[in-house]
Amino acid sequence: MEEEDAAADPYLPYDGGGDTIPLQEIPKRGSNYAMSNGGGAPSSTTHLLDFLEEPIPGVGTYDDFHTIDWVREKCKDRERHRKINSKKKESAWEFTKSLYDAWSGWLVVTLTGLASGALAGLIDIAADWMNDLKEGVCLSAMWFNHEQCCWTSNETTFAERDKCPQWKSWAELILGQAEGPGSYIMNYFMYIYWALSFAFLAVCLVKVFAPYACGSGIPEIKTILSGFIIRGYLGKWTLMIKTITLVLAVASGLSLGKEGPLVHVACCCGNIFSYLFPKYSKNEAKKREVLSAASAAGVSVAFGAPIGGVLFSLEEVSYYFPLKTLWRSFFAALVAAFVLRSINPFGNSRLVLFYVEYHTPWYLFELIPFILLGVFGGLWGAFFIRANIAWCRRRKSTRFGKYPVLEVILVAAITAVVAFPNPYTRQNTSELIKELFTDCGPLESSQLCQYRSQMNGSKAFTDNPNRPAGPGVYAAMWQLCLALIFKIIMTIFTFGLKVPSGLFIPSMAIGAIAGRIVGIAMEQLAYYHHDWFLFKEWCEVGADCITPGLYAMVGAAACLGGVTRMTVSLVVIVFELTGGLEYIVPLMAAVMTSKWVGDAFGREGIYEAHIRLNGYPFLDAKEEFTHTTLAREVMRPRRSDPPLAVLTQDDLTVEELQAVINETSYNGFPVIVSKESQRLVGFALRRDITIAIENARRKQEGIMLNSRVYFTQHAPTLPADSPRPLKLRSILDMSPFTVTDHTPMEIVVDIFRKLGLRQCLVTHNGIVLGIITKKNILEHLEELKQQEEPLATSWYYHKKRYPPSHGSNGKPRPRVHHVQLIRSFQDGRGRGGDGGGGEEEEEEEEVCLLDGANL
After folding, report:
1. What is the dihedral of CA 741, 746, 750, 753, to 10 degrees?
2. Which of 249, 382, 432, 847 is deepest in the core (most CB within 10 A)?
3. Keyword Mitochondrion: yes or no (predicted)?
4. Three state DSSP letters for 235-256
């Protein structure tokens, strides 16, 4: 960019104040997005591009770790649709192609639902078998888990229905004895051995083959659905490794669940199948419609809740959710649930392990303990989010985070050692929730159902539901209290490990434990004090007044709501679990209470907190902007910054254009009329310019370093001996989004959220003053938050900065495990030393999360 004479600088002042406003170089990543139909896909509405020019391959695509241009992608899709409709009457073949295009959306969600249901069934079956493998093995059929092994046995008893000759514990196989201290120690040792083996294998597979397979995946899914591109996160390697390691992680006994990662697995399926259809493979916005439907299918198979899955996709993860995506999400969830029901992984003709039905109505007075459970859920959610984020931040900032394998082994060892003595922590978490949800009946042999009979004082169960608790119930209460403390502590340290780890089941288990304790306490209170005014109106002596399992269900919903801040979708999911409309009001009361209490300590859910921790460029539509700042206060350049890097429309040479590209690292440049005019013409992306120049050198003769580059419709007048000029009008976005310098930031933020913009130019009477990027919006929101909450951790501190996938020469950088590698800047530019408005510092931090060597 040539230096300008100060006298010819026509910069405009703000409000006539007299201050000269210098133009700043566009922040590197902030200027990556345009509005028109880039990539040679002309818009029939604007006619901005040259129709006579052949589309340039590669133009209009996106680099890794960049955000898509939603408006441009939608324009490309509309143009493709018009082209197909205009040709479908020409021949039978074109008509067939139009039908295929119309049905491709339904076909891809059908394939996604089929794959999601099949993989979920496979994961459920394998996880159950491997979880029981820690305790023993079935000699008659090695592939049977404990329950399946004893199905055909005739030697089981009511009290010990899980014991049969076909199932052998490890102590019986190794020592030849089933009872005694030696047997207990051997089973203890084998339990720890298998837990550590599964955990070690899971973390090694993740680290070596697919670093993206770790964690829940929902924060990244939300970021991807908002338009961010993370190559390989939804690839086939990630799908395969996540499916395998999810089974291993669940079987290891860690305090995690498989429900959250199942959403990631389903989205991987949707992404892979979308590449079979050009309609979705060549359009990033359309692909995200498939991913929204896939996330609904993931929740559908995770909880057996198809409708809840659709609402989860709408409420929690999707950024753009048109009506047709709602229908296709519903269909994908239906197909996935049908496939899972056909597989019947639990052998109970249900979609989930802990399906229960209650037959006792709830009473108005019970809303008080239900609301108290909601308060507990909100407090637990706020505490967990702060504690887990603090631990994850410490992991990132200390040497401990450099040894993920050691961390997983350490957490797995502590979990196994502490969990084995307590039967409620030893068993699978899903089985624990099932036991806590289940109401006591004549066929239940659980310790929670060992009530005393009023006839003989024994522990035999009677049909009288209103009964005093026996020693077994009191022992179970103490064990549940210890299990509650254990689950709370271990879940904080487990979520965020480098293995697939979901949060739904651990949170529900914590709430179910607390709810069951409260339910039993209420039951005994009603029994011993049935003459109190609280009970005597609706609880008669001998009547079935209190259902402890219902309290466990309400507590589970409250704790999960406190952690995720889900409301409508959570109530529907739990309702589909229980199969009863009668308990909608208690669930709604508890979930809303937990959300209100949790929001009092911070409005972020756990997924938004992890998005913020990782520094993903995500604008949450749930947040409200209530400040009165203007666009001129947020835009770059600032008064002390260098001028903006701009291109003129017809007086640059190829050599000068390449010099601008090589000497800067910005992803786009405003195009102006001339140095004197400064009037905005359009916006050109760095990637598109580089690709266009390379393409012209290969296919056009006479393109030299001193060839004139022009972005206008017609070539400028040149001397006769001049080399052939290079026309780049086809890559120019002539309608970039612009706002005036007096536009309120409230409107600017809404524009960015609702249109999915990445950058917006700020003008005054048609002259470019500066630029506002999505990153500038996030920084501005963070500055305002710091003013309101001085103790809150800054987004600048822990944000993740990603390298561009192409170097200054336009060639892709080398990749290791789907990660581009780039050296840290050493010359000062990596820290904004040249005044690039802060976007330059995107280069300086290596991506430890993604690099397999630094996972």
Report:
1. 90
2. 249
3. no
4. CHHHHHHHHHHHHHHHHCCCCC
Give 733's DSSP letter. Answer: B
**Nearest to residue 680, comparing CAs of 772, 776, 774, 761?**
761
Q: What is the pLDDT of residue 20?
A: 31
Pairing of strands 680-685, 647-648: unpaired
Q: Give the count of beta carbons closer than 10 Å to the beta carbon of residue 713.
A: 8
Beta-sheet pairing, 652-653 with 708-710: antiparallel
Q: How far apart are CA 547 and CA 554, in angstroms?
A: 11
* Whole-number pLDDT of residue 38: 35
CA triple 727-733-737, angle to 5 deg: 160
Residue pLDDT, tens place only, 635-670: 888 777 777 788 888 888 888 888 888 887 777 888
- The C-alpha atoms of residue 822 and residue 538 are separated, in whole angstroms, by 71
Beta carbons of 569 and 314 less than 8 angstroms apart: yes
Q: Confidence class of residue 213 from pLDDT cuts 50, 70 and 90? A: very high
Q: Is the confidence at residue 829, as pLDDT, over 60? A: no
Q: For residue 211, which amino acid is it? A: P
Q: Identify residue 632 by its one-letter amino acid code.
A: R
pTM: predicted TM-score of the whole model, two decimal places: 0.81
- Rounded distance between C-alpha atoms, residue 801 and residue 399, angstroms: 19
Residue 66: count of CB within 10 angstroms of its CB: 22
* Cα(140)–Cα(57) distance, integer angstroms: 61
Cα 473 to Cα 429, 445, 479, 672, distances in angstroms = 20, 12, 10, 79
pLDDT at 792: 52
How large is the greatest C-alpha to C-alpha distance in the chain, in angstroms?
115
Beta-carbon contacts of 168 under 8 Å, excluding residues fewer than 6 positions away, are 136, 137, 138, 139
Strand order across the 652-653 sheet: 652-653, 708-710, 726-727
> What is the rounded average pLDDT of the residues 301-330?
90
Q: Residue 396: its pLDDT value, please?
A: 85
Choice between 840 and 385, residue whose per-residue pLDDT is larger: 385
Cis peptide before 637 (omega within 30 of 0): yes
Distance, in Å, from the CA atom of 737 to the CA atom of 760, rounded to the nearest integer, reads 5
Structure tokens of 565? Answer: 């801040």
pLDDT at 676: 82
Q: SS3 for 636?
A: strand
Rounded CA separation 114/333 (Å): 10
